[in-house]
């Protein structure tokens, strides 16, 4: 693990929220010279701490009105079953996140769909049709008062 100081942590917090912030503005907010700030950002990138920059997109404005988290339990606890499931999730555009977790189930998914009908199709025809899947529990997102995903 790479050790980062308080200044680097402030840089990361700001860039996580505002990835397109010009270096001059970032430097002013951090209290560094532009050249020192740029060196720090480039060092964070070189070390792989900053892995990229992304656009934050409002799903509703792109026609996505349904978001759910799904816990998935597999019927086989083998590496092959997990790999097959993960390959299927990588191909599914509805799956925005796939996490292998500990506990009573193996996976937690964040799924986005146009609406309930589109979600039902994904749930039944894609996710539910996988031979590795034993049980699914859907948690429908009603609102997101805090979402700091970068």
Question: Can you walk me through this structure?
Answer:
A four-stranded antiparallel beta sheet has the order 2-3-1-4. The protein has two domains: 6-46, Arc Repressor Mutant, subunit A, CATH 1.10.10.10; 59-140, Alpha-Beta Plaits (2-Layer Sandwich), CATH 3.30.70. 39% of the residues lie in helices and 20% in strands. It is of the alpha+beta class and 150 residues long.
Topology overview:
Blueprint: H1 6-17, H2 23-30, H3 34-46, E1 66-74, H4 79-91, E2 95-100, E3 107-113, H5 116-127, E4 133-140
Antiparallel strand pairs: 1-3, 1-4, 2-3
Strand composition percent? 15-25%
Distance between the termini: 20 Å
The overall pLDDT, averaged over residues, is: 95
Uncertain residue ranges: none
Helicity, as a percent range: 25-40%
Shape: elongated
Number of β-strand runs: 4
Radius of gyration: 20 Å
Q: What is the H/E order?
A: HHHEHEEHE
Classify the secondary structure makeup into a structural class. Answer: alpha+beta
Give the second-level CATH assignment, the architecture of the largest domain.
2-Layer Sandwich
Let me know the CATH homologous superfamily of the largest domain. Lrp/AsnC effector binding domain/regulation of amino acid metabolism (RAM) domain
Strand order in the largest sheet: 2-3-1-4
**What is the CATH class designation of the largest domain?**
Alpha Beta
Count of discrete structural domains: 2
Main beta sheet, described?
4 strands, antiparallel
Q: Supply the number of helical segments.
A: 5
User: If you consult CATH, what is the topology of the largest domain?
Assistant: Alpha-Beta Plaits
